[in-house]
């Protein structure tokens, strides 16, 4: 589409500062400095069998007219691989006649990123006589590793414009990233940049909601009622715990009000609409860039067929397979794995019960149990992430998918499902079960008939959820970023220390070749090749799932930011601050600390778009339940308009919530034979008490009151109304905003019309077959 105008959507992103483009200039053509690909092996003088396979594999590449250069350094053997022109000519021809790839660029020159992608496919699908391919040979240690080379000039440009900490608040050169790393990496950074930019508004509103709660920190009648109360509360555990004063938890009540106030209801509704707008506008920006890069009609499956034919013209296509037995087996394994993860949540519950019993004497409201449980949950997440990956990969092997794209999609769905349950099972317990199934003094629910379940503070359970989320989300982000950055940095430093011989400096001739355009067939000398290859070898290894790890981290964060946002209004702020760092951290890591990723072509972010849509719908449901069931919003509402002092007009407007805390408490008397507290537990301040209070709506005979059923009915009514209104709003917003801008559709239509018009010039009536 030469000469076409810039996409307005792209210009809007430039104006916002999300991206930084340089107009409609064509992608630059890079002449390879020192070969397309490098294989590395250990010297195998004592392992003749491995050496024989190594030689046979290299010979297979030479049969395909690949140029292979061998350089030995210390105990390493480097094989520089350069593909012949015929391969790329064949690729261009097949791409041109392909139906699904007809809209893609078919220029006579091929960039180095495209060369790398083609060579990567061919060397991975080249087999020796034993039917082993490169992956098999690497598993058996015939070859140690493989990698494509960084381009020094382009690497320097990306460092100056993008991959540095001082560029944190600048737009991203997404098209340059695409030219170097391929569309897949570019779309990841485009998505992350758009997501980070849109987090600004939720972060600001989240701060306002927090400040709204802070403004009532000392003046709220609810806080004053707790802080000035003489109410004696029942022991939190058996034997060692004693009765305690409600006023002892004054600070906890203040903390609860920061995150459980009327502002969180508005914020949860806003975030549900925000999620929809984020997704719909993302689809529009994606369509604009895909159109700009001319990959709208590109097909991953057809591209793979083209590469298979380029590799071997006599090959047969790999057929689609489906087995109900394998599918059933995978489904059963997934369900078993989910049950195991839920079982770990039960382990966390047991752990919290034990800790609560041990610390209840010193920590009121089970604060110690919450903190200990959150830290243990984080450790379980760290361990289970590795286990989940292994299980997901094994299940993908059972499925026997046709292409790597199918494998990647299947792996993504399974891994995200496992990680979602690992991260959120404990949060669902805290949000919807903690303090609701613990029973009452006459009949406590116990584990194994001995240990009591935890109780909620009279101010509500939402603070427990907030603390759990804050620890997991913030701790995970900090530790993950530290390891992501300093891990590769330390490996790079360690690699230099381990060198047995110092590599020579680049010679003057080759130094100049880096600064001027190379002529056809020109390359570096052997010493400079070795320096270049070894420098890339010392960088941190990357694989096909390296970008998947980055996406998974961000989508999990997106889930935290949207699903339980009613309990943690500051989540968007922490996510925004993390992402500003994350963008540059990932850029620095990819450009300077890691080996170059194999450039992958695509026109979408894949199955992640479906996962994000599912998370958006789930966020509406969960936030409705959090506000309606977990928070005290509904009980306060019912009290204000049905049971409060303002109902009879006996108090001013500012005192309408007076007596609310006391209204939520029930009394247990030691005179009741069902109450079995030890007499030593009923002592406080040197005096014995004959009764204590606990949070519930029960009468003196432990029967549920009418108020409980009224509140329950209003809770369900609110959840249904909240979810239906927001789902309707989401559908209206989705319908109102077209996923593809009209100018993109018109550009595509015009481009196809011109191509058909061009083909019509070669039409000859004699070539038409008549029936």
Short overview:
It contains 26 helices and 14 strands. By secondary structure, it is an alpha+beta fold.
Strand content: 5-15%
Strand order of the largest sheet: 2-3-1-4
Please tally the β strands and state the result: 14
Shape: elongated
Largest β-sheet summary: 4 strands, antiparallel
Low-pLDDT parts are 26-33
Distance between the termini: 37 Å
User: Rounded to an integer, what's the Rg over CA atoms?
Assistant: 32 Å
Mean pLDDT: 82
Number of contiguous helices: 26
The quaternary organization reads as single chain
The proportion of residues forming helix, as a percent range, comes to 55-70%
* Derived structural class: alpha+beta
Give structural notes.
This protein is of the alpha+beta class and 771 residues long. Among the domains are: 34-149; 151-317 and 536-738, no CATH class. It is 58% helix and 6% strand. The chain is built from 26 helices and 14 strands. The strands form six sheets. A four-stranded antiparallel sheet has the order 2-3-1-4, sandwiched between helices. Helix 3 runs antiparallel to helix 13 (300-311) and helix 8 runs antiparallel to helix 21. The two termini are 37 Å apart. The relative contact order is 0.13.
Name the descriptors:
single chain, 771 residues, alpha+beta, four-stranded antiparallel sheet, two-stranded antiparallel sheet, 26 helices, transmembrane helix
Helices and strands in order, then pairings?
Blueprint: H1 8-16, E1 37-42, H2 48-63, E2 67-73, E3 76-82, H3 85-97, H4 112-124, H5 134-139, E4 145-147, H6 152-161, H7 174-181, H8 183-198, H9 200-215, H10 221-227, E5 232-233, E6 244-245, H11 250-259, H12 262-292, H13 300-311, H14 324-359, H15 367-399, H16 404-432, E7 439-440, E8 443-444, E9 446-447, E10 451-452, H17 462-498, H18 508-513, H19 526-537, H20 546-563, H21 571-593, H22 608-630, H23 633-643, H24 660-663, E11 665-669, E12 683-684, E13 687-688, E14 691-695, H25 706-736, H26 742-760
Antiparallel strand pairs: 1-3, 1-4, 2-3, 5-6, 7-8, 9-10, 11-14, 12-13
């Amino acid at each position: 589409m030469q000469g076409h105008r810039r996409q307005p959507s792209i210009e809007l992103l430039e104006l916002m500062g999300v991206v930084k483009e340089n107009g409609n200039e064509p992608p630059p053509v890079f002449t390879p400095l020192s070969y397309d690909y490098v294989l590395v092996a250990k010297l195998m003088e004592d392992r003749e069998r491995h050496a024989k396979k190594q030689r046979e594999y290299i010979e297979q590449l030479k049969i395909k007219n690949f140029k292979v250069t061998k350089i030995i350094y210390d105990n390493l053997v480097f094989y520089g691989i350069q593909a012949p022109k015929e391969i790329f000519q064949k690729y261009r021809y097949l791409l041109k006649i392909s139906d699904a790839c007809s809209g893609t660029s078919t220029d006579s020159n091929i960039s180095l990123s495209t060369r790398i992608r083609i060579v990567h496919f061919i060397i991975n699908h080249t087999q020796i006589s034993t039917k082993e391919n490169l992956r098999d040979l690497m598993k058996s240690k015939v070859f140690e590793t493989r990698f494509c080379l960084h381009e020094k000039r382009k690497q320097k440009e990306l460092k100056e414009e993008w991959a540095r900490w001082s560029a944190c608040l600048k737009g991203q050169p997404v098209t340059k990233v695409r030219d170097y790393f391929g569309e897949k990496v570019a779309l990841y950074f485009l998505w992350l940049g758009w997501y980070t930019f849109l987090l600004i508004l939720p972060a600001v509103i989240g701060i306002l909601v927090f400040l709204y709660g802070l403004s009532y920190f000392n003046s709220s009648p609810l806080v004053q009622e707790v802080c000035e109360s003489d109410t004696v509360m029942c022991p939190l555990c058996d034997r060692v715990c004693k009765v305690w004063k409600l006023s002892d938890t004054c600070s906890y009540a203040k903390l609860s009000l920061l995150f459980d106030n009327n502002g969180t209801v508005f914020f949860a509704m806003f975030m549900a609409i925000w999620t929809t707008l984020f997704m719909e506008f993302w689809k529009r920006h994606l369509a604009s860039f895909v159109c700009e890069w001319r990959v709208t009609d590109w097909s991953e499956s057809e591209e793979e067929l083209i590469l298979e034919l380029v590799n071997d013209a006599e090959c047969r296509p790999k057929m689609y397979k489906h087995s109900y037995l394998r599918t059933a087996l995978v489904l059963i394994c997934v369900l078993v794995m989910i049950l195991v993860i839920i079982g770990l949540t039960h382990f966390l519950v047991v752990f919290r019960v034990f800790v609560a019993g041990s610390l209840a004497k010193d920590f009121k409201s089970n604060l110690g149990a919450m903190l200990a449980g959150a830290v243990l949950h984080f450790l379980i997440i760290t361990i289970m992430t590795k286990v989940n990956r292994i299980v997901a990969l094994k299940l993908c092997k059972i499925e026997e998918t046709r292409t790597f794209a199918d494998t990647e999609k299947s792996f993504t769905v399974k891994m995200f499902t496992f990680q979602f349950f690992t991260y959120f099972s404990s949060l669902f317990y805290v949000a919807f079960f903690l303090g609701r199934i613990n029973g009452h003094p006459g009949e406590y629910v116990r584990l194994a008939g001995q240990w009591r379940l935890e109780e909620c503070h009279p101010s509500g359970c939402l603070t427990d959820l907030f603390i759990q989320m804050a620890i997991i989300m913030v701790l995970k982000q900090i530790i993950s970023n530290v390891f992501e950055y300093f891990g590769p940095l330390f490996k790079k430093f360690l690699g230099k220390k381990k060198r047995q011989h110092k590599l020579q400096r680049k010679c003057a001739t080759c130094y100049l070749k880096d600064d001027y355009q190379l002529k056809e067939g020109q390359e570096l000398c052997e010493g400079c090749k070795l320096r270049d290859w070894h420098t890339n070898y010392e960088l941190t290894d990357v694989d096909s799932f390296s970008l998947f790890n980055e996406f998974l981290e961000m989508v999990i964060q997106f889930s935290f930011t949207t699903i339980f946002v009613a309990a943690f209004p500051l989540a968007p702020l922490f996510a925004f601050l993390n992402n500003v760092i994350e963008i540059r951290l990932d850029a620095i890591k990819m450009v300077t600390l890691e080996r170059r990723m194999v450039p992958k072509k695509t026109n979408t972010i894949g199955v992640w778009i479906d996962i994000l849509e599912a998370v958006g719908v789930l966020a509406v449901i969960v936030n409705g339940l959090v506000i309606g069931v977990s928070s005290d919003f509904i009980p306060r509402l019912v009290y204000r308009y049905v049971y409060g002092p303002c109902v009879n007009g006996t108090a001013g407007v500012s005192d309408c919530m007076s007596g609310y805390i006391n209204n939520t408490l029930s009394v247990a008397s030691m005179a009741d034979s069902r109450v079995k507290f030890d007499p030593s537990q009923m002592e406080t301040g040197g005096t014995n008490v004959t009764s204590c209070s606990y949070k519930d709506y029960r009468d003196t005979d432990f029967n549920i009151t009418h108020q409980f059923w009224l509140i329950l009915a209003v809770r369900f009514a609110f959840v249904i109304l909240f979810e239906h209104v927001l789902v309707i709003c989401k559908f209206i917003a989705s319908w109102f905003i077209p996923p593809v801008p009209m100018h993109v559709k018109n550009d595509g239509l015009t481009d196809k019309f011109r191509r058909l018009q061009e083909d019509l010039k070669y039409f000859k009536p004699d070539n038409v077959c008549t029936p």
